[in-house]
Structure formats: structure tokens, C-alpha cells
Structure of Sulfatase N-terminal domain-containing protein:
Amino acid sequence: MGWADVGHHSDHILTPNIDTLAADGVVLNNFYVQPVSNPSSGALLTGRHPMHLGFQNIALLPFMATGFPLHFKLLPQYLKHYNYATHIVGKWHLGFMNREYTPTYRGFDSHVGYWTNRQFYFNHTNCDPYDRVGCGYDFRHNMDVITNASGVYSTHYFTDRCLHIIDEHNTSEPLFLYVPHQAIHVSANKLPVEAPQEYIDMFAYIESDMRRGLAAAAYSMDESIGAVVERLHSRQMLE
């Protein structure tokens, strides 16, 4: 996601909910992150620069026999000391070579999403060309494979999961809900970012197929963010 991929920096991308959060919050006009996801997520969950995490050069690929070093304590592990409920919905991408590297062993009460670097948005398989070992299905609830999600757009699936967590949460306790969306990451084979056709049709005025798919995926992500914030508001959890 680049500078011009949100509504408040673009005349053709629609992200009204993100724009509202920006208008009501803080816009970091000179905030620099890593160009790929893996180092960025590691930095976010540790507060450390990727140079000190061993992830400054390349993101994890699906069959690398490594993961985010276990001696680093992650944010949800700290929050458990303060009685937080901790959940992740979406992309993990910090390693899974054994179970100790997976989300529910690193401070999260639950995880719905995927472990690898990227996948198709509808069938949830990863066909990463760099690994040259074919495709694999990667959609999970904790340590179990989700078998009934094929054909369901990942952003919609993640939204429903977030709303379920919020609805079931005991509001007398604090909640850490980490939602690293798949959108607007490239699909498994680097083709245009996938989105439901009705979202793509909204951006028919964009000539480029690549840009049109990105705009549609960004809009669906924005819609998800709006639904989550609204549900938090309805349960008086934003306070």
C-alpha cells in the first residue's frame, strides 16, 4: 500500500472510513516503514527495528525452515500480564516451522487467517513461484485447517470473525484485536489483486486492470475497518 492508495491522498481511490480515522486522529506524513510486510509486522509486534530482528533483507517464504526468533517477546505476550484478551485475524507471516512459532504459542488467544506470505483471496491457496513446489491450502483457526472457506473472499471472512470476537468479548476486560488484513497484498501468483466483481465494477473509470483491482481491494478493506469500528462503538468499547 503506497502513498496514493488511500482516499485522502488520491482522487480515484475510495477509503472513506480510513479517511475519517485520519481526519479524527493523527496523519503521519513522514512515517517510514519497510517495503515488505514481514519486517514491518515484526517491528510492530516488538517495537524493534528489523535490523535488530534479522529480517532486514527478505521476507519469510513458505518453506523456509525458520521463523521470528523465539527469544523476542511479542506485544500480546506483554499484554497478557494485564489481563488482555488477545486475538489476531488475518496474516501471520512470522514463521510456522514448528508450533512454537505460531500465533497461539506467542501470546494470542486465537488466530483466524493464514501463516504464509500470500495467497489467493478466494480459494486460500499459496502458489508462490519462488518455492517451485506447487500450491498449498493455508487457512486456519488456531492449529486447525478451515475447510469451508473456499470461495469466500478473505476480507469478508476476516470481518465476520472480528465482529464475532467483539460481540463475544467481556467488556469488563481489555481487548487487543490485531487485524493484519490480506488486502491489499498481491495474490499468490502476482496477478491483479483479487476482489469481488461488484467492487471492481465500482472503479470502471480506472483504465489499468492492476490499479482497478487494487482500488477494489482497498475499498473492501476500508469497508471492513468501518464495520469493526462501528461494532466497537456500538458496544461502547472505543472508550
Remarks:
- The chain has one domain: 7-235.
- The longest strand covers residues 85-91.
- The domain at 7-235 is CATH 3.40.720.10 (Alkaline Phosphatase, subunit A).
- The chain has a mean pLDDT of 92.
